[in-house]
Amino acid sequence: MLSLLEQAKQYVVDFMQGHGKANAKDKLTRQVPGVRRKLTHAEISALYADNPIVQNIVDIPAEDMTRHWFTLRMQDDKLAQDIMARLADLNAQGAFKKARMYERMRGDGFISLGVTQKSKFELQDPLRFDNLLSVDYLHPFSSMKVNEFLINDDVFDGAYGKLEKLRINRASRSGIQAVETESLVHYSRVLHDQTRRLEDEEQGMSLLETLYDAITVLDTSLWSVGQILHDFTFKVYASEDVKNVSPAEKKEMSMLLDFMFRTEALAIIGKDESLTKQTTPVAGIKDLLDFTWDYIAAAARMPKSVIKGQEAGTLTGAQYDVMNYYARITSAQENEMKPLLEQLIRMLMWAEKEPGGRIDPDSIEWEIKFNPLWSVDSKTDAEIRKIVAETDQIYVSNGIITADEVREARFGQFGIADNFKFSGDDADWQRMAGEVYGKWKENGTHG
């Protein structure tokens, strides 16, 4: 029979491969990256409803993309104003905000285009712009309403990877009675907002799936901090007589003393007894919480100050991370929202009963110009304008560019506008950031 030492040698060859390292009992080994948790719509709804930080991550970028809306610029100012008024009647701003919220929350955001056409049509028929009479309503909805995505999977087709039709659940409720209907809808009859989709999947991927672990850790952090605060201070009663007390008596005495000494009331104790107050040590907890916040901010691509609800559109001091965030919002406006807005405006121009009657959008000059997302104080704004003007003057004086090119670059083809949107390259951003930071240091305040 083997001795105890020989048996131990059979199990432990290297102390690094003992109870914790590189075997089935190693928790680190069992933690495998890439194990995706695919959330159901019910789980996503529960996360959003329960966690205000999740609500901020979903809502704030959508609000920032649409808060200041855009300016429609064209030669006919009255037509531009009429079209913007029609968009306001349709609540287009709210619809696009909701669609972006649904895209971040569930992976897909849609806006149904309710139209009147000259001839009878089916929802599965392509929408013909030259047959439009009016645009009647815009209804935002999410992928919860979509039962099936029909996508072109032919790699040798020009429309490869594009959504062609949707099978939409059109269920309606009247009191307790529900009517279940389903319709095949052509893709041209909806505006579709989607930015995250895996190649082998049809639906977009919810942002909350990638944030799930971080949200879990944040939720655990909240609970842990709550427990620490609940027991942050406690009293210790020391007495020699405790050793002579039975367990039952000790329990009864503990309950009595806990009731008596729960507040800052007067404590009457013996000569050789002591009553002290102890606090829970919290050294290092800030670093742990900062790590959680940093991870969430990186995963959501949002600064911590924005996630926590900093006043939107305001720069305080040298907030380069907030500038970068607004730069990403601007990019999303131009690359993701602008094509959808242009499609809607084209429909309004083509429709006979909309402002201006039927107009071929390609026959006139027009453009969408997003309004500034953020602002600095008026003095800093004036100084930035002055720096830009002086720089342009140097370029013109040295023959690098012409005055007409400056006019086109700064004010566009529609002349001087009331607003000034600073949208230059990285060097411009750095120069502007330096101006803001300089004023912040000069004033000595973050306000």
Profile the largest sheet: 3 strands, antiparallel
How many helical stretches? 15
- Average pLDDT score: 80
What is the CA-atom radius of gyration, in angstroms? 32 Å
Shape: elongated
The assigned structural class equals: alpha+beta
- First and last CA, distance: 80 Å
InterPro entries: Acb1-like_N, Phage-assoc_HI1409
Organism: Lysinibacillus macroides
Protein name: Phage-associated protein, HI1409 family
How would you portray this structure in words?
This protein is 45% helix and 16% strand. The strands form five sheets. A three-stranded antiparallel sheet has the order 3-2-9. The chain has a three-stranded antiparallel sheet with strand order 4-5-8, with no helix packed on it. A two-stranded antiparallel ribbon has the order 1-12. The chain starts with a helix and ends with a helix. The protein is elongated and about 100 Å long. With 447 residues, the chain is of the alpha+beta class. Among the domains are: 73 residues, no CATH class; 72 residues, no CATH class.
